[in-house]
Amino acid sequence: MTTPETSDLMLPQGPETRRRRRVLVVTSNGSGMGHLTRMLAVADRMSDDAEVAIASLSTGVGVVGRYGIPYEYIASPSALNMSWTSWEPYFAGRLARTVDLVRPDTVVFDGTHPYRGLIRTLEGRDLHTVWMRRGMWLPDAPEEALDRADHFDLIIEPGEQADAYDTGATARREDAHRIAPITLLSEDDLLSREQARTDLGYAEGEKVALITLGAGNINDITSLQERISAWFRQERPDWRVVVTRSPIARGAHNGGAHGVETLRMYPLARHGRAFDAVVSASGYNAFHEWMRAAVPTLWVPNIETATDDQLARARWAADEGAGLLHIDGGERADLGHQLEALTDDAGREALRARAAELHAASVAEDGARQAAELILGCDVAAG
Length: 383
Prior knowledge:
This protein has eleven helices and 14 strands. The chain is an alpha/beta fold. Helix 1 crosses helix 11 and helix 3 packs parallel to helix 4.
């Protein structure tokens, strides 16, 4: 992982190397990896046709180095303990230097709010600009950011399997190209259940539950995680319980306490079929990865996000019979009842079958590849 003052931008320079389009991806994410992971998926699909570099506010940006993609870490306001007013010029300066170094033909921004520093940096440059704008906004989320759509040549909205429950501001707009859901890995990248369990050391017949509630940088997941672990110890002592540790999680971590194992792996989805049951937050990437893998899941939406309507996704899955829903501290707050349903053999098989059925019926295309084709479909600037 690079520090705020260093980079891993190693694109070849000189006119003799200008044979392929250059794409600079800029992602938000001071507290998560959702935007970064989504654009890593798209960048990976573009790798044969373009030179891609990524500049991100996510402290986890170093993971893209595993894919051979050069990257730049630009610290967020919270990471630098700066106000937004003070940070915007800093961001604009860092981004301008990155653009000058990479010399891209196209700049893609993935985030819900195009920063003023981003707009200021792109203005006056001969660049194609793309906004990857996730839908499923909270109904009461501020809409001012949508007014900045005019600064982009193309807007792409990654698909939502739960789009029928999207009541946010983007659902009422017609300015975006809507594509299939984006997942980091293709179907061929996913390991079989047998291979995944072998890799992770799980015995045949052993029941394994995964708890993956996010980085915990927005909401406090510790108490809920401990309550779930305690329920398994008391009610399902024969189950093996594993808790994920996000690459960007901050603060103390006690996931390995009381016999609960800790798993730190990226991308986790490759081994997703190793698990018999999952308790997961319902952010964009996690939701579509677990639904595709058809692993029985208890969805625990993070209701403290600024824009992302995780509750709508989770509610859709529950209403469709493809998942269970627990709203911590709110309705459907009987955690024990939901965990009993999740660990019931017949119930899990029903959830698995329904999730597989819905995925087969509604997700026929690779959204990441569609996005890559749209981005590369722009004319390349001369020179």
